[in-house]
Amino acid sequence: MVVNGEPVPVGVGPVHPRDVVRVARAGASVALTPDALAALEAGAAHIRTLALGPRPVYGVSTGFGALATRHIPVEQRQQLQRSLIRSHAAGSGPEVEREVVRATMLLRLSTLATGHTGVRTVVAQTYAGMLSAGLTPVVPEYGSLGCSGDLAPLAHCALAAIGEGEVRGPEGALEPADRALAAAGIAPLTLTEKEGLALVNGTDGMLGQLVLACHDLRRLLALADVTAAMSIEGLLGTDRVFAADLQALRHHPGPAASAANLARLLAGSPIVASHAGPDCPIVQDAYSLRCAPQVAGAARDTLAHAEQVAARELASAVDNPVVTADGRVESNGSFHGAPLGYVLDFLAIAVADVASMSERRTDRFLDVARNHGLPAFLAHDPGVDSGLMIAQYTQAGIVSDLKRLAVPASVDSIPSSAMQEDHVSMGWSAARKLRRALDGLTRVLAVEALTAARGLDLRAPLRPGPATGAVLEAIRRRVAGPGPDRHLSPEIAAVTELARSGALVDVAEAVVGPLD
């Protein structure tokens, strides 16, 4: 991983979503701000005072969870914090992606920097140093119930900070944490009162994945408008239904934005103009064409709500107990992941529906009863050639998976910790399945783009409009046009990479300007 650009400042205020993406994906370093350093010192001072007092304080002088009734003497409190990290680093399964771990660590650091967790400055500096050095703890996928926060994933991050477990270095090599820390000039942490608890008690894994998902989905919804425009054009649909005055009759901003995108993308199309007269026999387009902005737009409005929830959580200090502004240390329930779990599930539902409509448009291209004069399956010689028949099978298989991934995780709860933690959010599980769903949507839209491109080619000598034509040209630079059957999987992979990289949206925006 190459560290890129200016350090991201981490202070008492929220980290901006774009900075989460920079740290997670571009390897940006981080730097604590002066106000964060002051807040850390003040919070740690409150904990030191309470640690010396006679009153039991959860996480400072007691055990954890169902063991909170046990008073821990001063001489055992470092062991208490170390034991917490070791025991809670109980994850299992494949490694979580590096970008997710880096986002998780950044957001935990952001909460530490508020001073409300009571940790010493050195704790926050260690996390900042690990992020800046490109050291990424190995975090297994399973272990979080989304309450009390993302315990096991965060514990694996903390385990590396105390010099145990394994990390991935800047180039991805696996190495022992103590050796990697030494090479980076970072001393392993020796945790004092409350610090182990402060490192594991947060929603940062869920939140990091939500921020990354929102970033990705916003671009994918623009791509969904691009592929829909190509399909509408190639299937001889009309652009009249996307008129602004029609959209204004229904007061939802997302559909209006999507319809405006479609109108711009289809502007100047010779194919659309060729059947725009009163003699056109098509009275109304199918729903998958006519209602494209209603579905992609509703997904936009759902995304806007998710972004608002993410912004609130980014501005929050999530820990239990917390150090209040007046120096109290109070237990609370802010670590519960329900606010994040709900929107992660909402987004998975929207993703499945956008993909489902995309697959229906692809299927129309392949059916001679519905594609208005194109060859069966867009094949060169139908019967000898199968064309894109099985590409739609691939799309349908993915869409079926997306429907299963849309089943909410947040409605489930399995009690834990001897019934002390008797209701959990499953927000981490919602985040994990949303990541898989976004990958599926990318692949589904790529197949629609591949199919629509062939359909547009087969409308020759009529040519597509400037924007859709630019997308077609970008695809043709990677994938050949219509002809006898070829090995199809590499072509799907090539267009999927164009979709994932944002290249298809970029070339359309180069013609019509930024899409909403």
From TrEMBL:
CDD domains: PAL-HAL. Pfam families: Lyase_aromatic. It catalyses: L-histidine = trans-urocanate + NH4(+). Gene3D superfamilies: Fumarase/aspartase (Central domain), Fumarase/aspartase (N-terminal domain). One of its GO terms (cellular component) is cytoplasm. Pathway: Amino-acid degradation; L-histidine degradation into L-glutamate; N-formimidoyl-L-glutamate from L-histidine: step 1/3. Its EC number is 4.3.1.3. It is found in: Cytoplasm. The keyword Lyase applies. It is an enzyme of class 4 (lyase). GO terms for biological process: L-histidine catabolic process. Signal peptide: none annotated. It comes from the Bacteria. One of its GO terms (molecular function) is histidine ammonia-lyase activity. Keywords: Histidine metabolism, Lyase. Belongs to the PAL/histidase family. This is Histidine ammonia-lyase. The lineage of its organism: Bacteria, Bacillati, Actinomycetota, Actinomycetes, Mycobacteriales.
